[in-house]
Amino acid sequence: MKGHDTALVDVSDEVLAKSKLAITKSLGRIQEKFSQDPKYGYLEGAEVFMSSALKRLTLTTDMKAFVESADIVIESIVENIDAKKKLFAEVDKVAAPKCIFASNTSSLPIAEIASATNRKDRFGGLHFFNPVPVMRLLEVIKTDDTTEGTFNALMKFGTNLGKHCVTCKDTPGFIVNRLLVPYLGEAVHMAERGDATIADIDMAMKHGAAYPMGPFELADFVGLDVVKFILDGWNEKFPDVELFRTSPLLDRLVSEGKLGRKTGEGFYKYDK
Ligand code: 3HC
């Protein structure tokens, strides 16, 4: 959307086909808006926007072909430290020396992920928010090894994407998830205790705190597996922090494959 040639690398063509569908749908919403706006040249401008954005995007399972010439690699895989380290160790072997690496992790230490590479100085965090085309925030994370040059390049990259960039030390959850994830967990504990219903808790936070979604709607939107991965990881590392404990209800839904919107059911049911 912002003019960068981009490759989306994933593990299978089946996953990539799903991604293509989601990206086209999302771009379609933006195209629709542009088609009614003189600023973007109505329909003609909207069609040019859509086709040129899609032309700049390659979807592939061949990581090496694109990483060799990339200026930046942003990893956004499963929230598991070993998987991330393994991937970055591989990418590090093929990427050009100038290439900057960033992780979109929402809860794991950037410095530990970076330790799997030989470019700790050109490594940082870029944490985006769902839905990425709409949410204006980007958390830009600097470790003790990230150079000023790398950090400034990441900030510039984020600003050019149209994001409001904030920075935070390499601490669990950075700013947003450190506050948001315990809040989601507390909402689940509240429902488990029977203090209030899921529907009433959501209604309360939407109309009493002016949040666009209640905590259960938001957890379903983010993915219950993601919320559980984050809480489990923190709970293991900080067993004395009560706010990081997970809950039987969340554990059960995840074990049943009810991961929220993406599987058609989480705390609520959705049309697939
Ligand atoms: N792609 C492109 N545009 C989209 C979109 C998408 N996927 N989803 C929504 N939009 C656009 C719509 O076209 C619409 O644009 P307009 O206002 O210019 O017409 C606008 O966004 C609002 O969408 P809708 O009218 O369809 O729906 P809502 O007003 O209900 O908003 C929402 C939907 C933006 C998702 C809103 O409910 C919201 O802000 N929810 C909270 C999201 C949130 O808190 N995200 C952070 C999650 S935490 C996270 O991501 C961190 C991770 O590490 C866990």
Automatic annotation (TrEMBL):
Substrates-to-products reaction catalysed: a (3S)-3-hydroxyacyl-CoA + NAD(+) = a 3-oxoacyl-CoA + NADH + H(+)
Cross-referenced InterPro entries: 3-OHacyl-CoA_DH, 3-OHacyl-CoA_DH_CS, 3-OHacyl-CoA_DH_NAD-bd, 3HC_DH_C, 6-PGluconate_DH-like_C_sf, 6PGD_dom2, Mito_3-hydroxyacyl-CoA_DH, NAD(P)-bd_dom_sf
Pathway it works in: Lipid metabolism; fatty acid beta-oxidation
Chief location: mitochondrion
Gene3D superfamilies xrefs: N-(1-d-carboxylethyl)-l-norvaline Dehydrogenase, domain 2, NAD(P)-binding Rossmann-like Domain
Chain ranges of the 3-hydroxyacyl-CoA dehydrogenase NAD binding domain: 2-171
Keywords: Fatty acid metabolism, Lipid metabolism, Mitochondrion, NAD, Oxidoreductase
Pfam families listed in its UniProt record: 3HCDH, 3HCDH_N
UniProt-listed SUPFAM superfamilies: 6-phosphogluconate dehydrogenase C-terminal domain-like, NAD(P)-binding Rossmann-fold domains
Entry's EC annotation: 1.1.1.35
Span of domain 3-hydroxyacyl-CoA dehydrogenase C-terminal: 173-270
Subcellular compartments: Mitochondrion matrix
PANTHER family cross-referenced by the UniProt entry: HYDROXYACYL-COENZYME A DEHYDROGENASE, MITOCHONDRIAL (PTHR43561:SF3), PTHR43561
Family to which the UniProt record says this protein belongs: Belongs to the 3-hydroxyacyl-CoA dehydrogenase family.
Stated name of the protein: 3-hydroxyacyl-CoA dehydrogenase
Species: Priapulus caudatus
